[in-house]
Design brief:
heterodimer; A: mainly alpha; 2 domains; 8 helices; globular; B: alpha/beta; Rossmann fold; 9 strands
Chain lengths: 213, 224
């Protein structure tokens, strides 16, 4: 399971919140956690994010894998930081991670990627005059979120294959096929996007049609 | 109508297509042949995914190499692995994504996507994570993502390779009911039922061009 959750349908306040301000809030939380080193402030932000999960009524089945991933990350990074910088610094970094990942995950659980892409496109619209292509940036954001799940799926399959061949602990048996499959996927995705017209310059709207099966 | 005039293609020294001349006005046309025979490459030239190194391709008079954008609006493409075609996390969002460049209104995109998915029996899966659908449902989703744009031509490259018998049958039934001209590159000879014309490729050349039964007989002979 990935730290970034897929959308969980719902009708809570956070589900209904406009996407642009929600995204801004996540960015502010992420930036804010870097700017402060006060563990009490960071703990407060973590508490606020946790409250967000309660308000969004995120089901336990979605919460459990997120907590597991976070715990694993915290143990690994926390131990290294503790060893390198001491307990206080390790605590601050751990709280920063919890707040930032927790807020990002809450956002993806309560926001459709389609809405996010539209919000990014709208937000970057004024930059069009400077050569920015908002629809391309929006697509990039959507694909980035989607790729987290895809790469996680590929990693799981490669790990299972390595295990089946008795090479469960081998870094090479994991890294080489993972890299090859990831590149192949990127290639195929690029081809699929090109086939759907993403790469063509012409974006003139044309009347929509409805296909009949 | 799809026309190939002296179409050839090379990857370095390797010739994958060699002097293909075809005019395809029929509604259902299939390309069959062994692995590496050139059928996928030929199919990819139709919407400009591959630009032939020799000759020209025309779709309703337009050249995909020069008028790619215009051709891609008329030609939909379904690949063998639906996982590589799914761009958005949920089925509804993925189909709506196809409309992003042509329909500005988000609610309208969602409505059209839901309508198309429902038409293909995926109405209950609109909010469902796309990658968690079954193989057959994913391929139907890929088909929906293409058909929501109502293209005139549908090119399918080995669309049933990853499907079981039941899903393969369901996919073939959906394909048969479409109004679009279908160009199907396939190994799956069961799919050819009801097709108007079957072209057999071998070593990048057309070696047979007939109705399904004689064309398949020719292909079987090639394989023995």
């Amino acid at each position: 399971m990935t730290p970034l959750g897929l959308y969980e349908p719902g009708t809570s306040l956070l589900h209904r919140a406009p996407t642009g301000p929600s995204l801004l809030a996540v960015l502010l939380i992420a930036a804010g956690t870097v700017l402060t080193s006060d563990p009490w402030v960071l703990a407060g932000v973590c508490g606020l994010v946790a409250l967000g999960y309660v308000v969004a009524r995120v089901p336990w089945r979605r919460l459990r894998p997120l907590l597991r991933t976070l715990a694993l990350l915290l143990v690994l990074i926390g131990l290294v930081q503790w060893w390198l910088l001491g307990p206080e610094r390790a605590l601050v970094i751990a709280l920063r991670l919890v707040a930032a990942i927790g807020a990002a995950s809450l956002f993806t659980l309560t926001t459709r990627v389609d809405d996010l892409v539209s919000a990014v496109e709208r937000g970057l619209g004024p930059l069009r005059r400077f050569g920015v292509r908002p629809e391309r940036v929006g697509l990039l954001v959507g694909l980035t979120i989607q790729s987290v799940g895809t790469l996680s799926g590929i990693a799981g399959q490669v790990r299972a294959s390595a295990k089946a061949r008795g090479a469960g602990g081998s870094v090479t048996a994991f890294a080489v096929p993972f890299m090859i499959r990831t590149l192949r996927h990127a290639d195929a995705l690029g081809e699929a996007l090109a086939a759907r017209g993403w790469g063509d310059d012409d974006t003139r709207p044309s009347p929509p049609h409805v296909a009949e099966p | 109508m799809i026309e190939f005039s002296g179409v050839g293609h090379r990857y370095g020294d390797r010739v994958v297509l060699d002097g293909v001349d075809l005019t395809l006005p029929q509604s259902r046309v299939a390309l069959i042949g062994a692995n590496g025979s050139g059928k996928s490459t030929l199919a990819r030239t139709v919407n400009g995914l591959v630009t032939p190194t020799e000759g020209t391709v025309r779709v309703d008079g337009r050249d995909p190499a020069r008028q790619g954008s215009a051709v891609r609006r008329r030609v939909g493409f379904v690949f063998s692995d639906p996982d590589s075609q799914i761009v958005m996390p949920t089925a509804g969002e993925d189909v709506a994504f196809s409309l992003r460049r042509t329909v500005r209104n988000r609610a309208e995109r969602a409505r059209l996507a839901a309508e198309t998915l429902t038409g293909f029996g995926l109405g209950d899966h609109i909010e469902h994570p796309a990658h968690q659908l079954s193989g057959g449902q994913k391929q139907l989703l890929a088909l929906c993502a293409v058909l929501v744009l109502d293209p005139d031509v549908l090119v399918c490259d080995e669309p049933t390779t990853l499907l079981d018998l039941r899903n393969k049958k369901a996919f073939a039934e959906r394909l048969a009911g479409l109004r679009q001209q279908v160009l199907l590159a396939t190994h799956d000879l069961d799919l050819l039922e009801g097709f108007d014309r079957v072209i057999v490729l071998d070593g990048g050349r057309v070696v047979a061009d007939d109705e399904p039964e004689p064309a398949v007989a020719h292909y079987r002979k090639l394989c023995t």
